[in-house]
# Entry
Amino acid sequence: MTELKQDKNMIIGLWRITKMSEWDNDYVNEEVKAYIKIEKSGIGEFHFGYVQCSTSGRFKESKYDFTFEGNDECDPINGDGWMKINKDETAEGEIRFHRRDCSKFWAKREVSLPKQPNS
# Structure
């Protein structure tokens, strides 16, 4: 995919991870629908399989570069990664666990339904 010229506002939000290079979708969506969430401050989180982590990153050169820490089935983990937006407005990136696995991922922006007024 070709990269889309972007600013950080294009990356901010909730993204559903649709595919990962190292694990099948049954594992990726085992506990929750896999996601990565990025806030305006550069703080965020991701969750797939039994992996749940918080991120801290910055927006540079049309990417969100981040470090993370969290757990994988109660074992502490950390590492780094990146994410960018493609021309078709999907996202792709990579999550690299320190001294462990590395996986590419692909994601689509989560579209929330508007809140319904109380009847």
Summary: The beta strands are 13-20, 35-38, 43-48, 51-60, 63-72, 75-85, 91-97, 102-109. Helices lie at 8-11, 25-28.
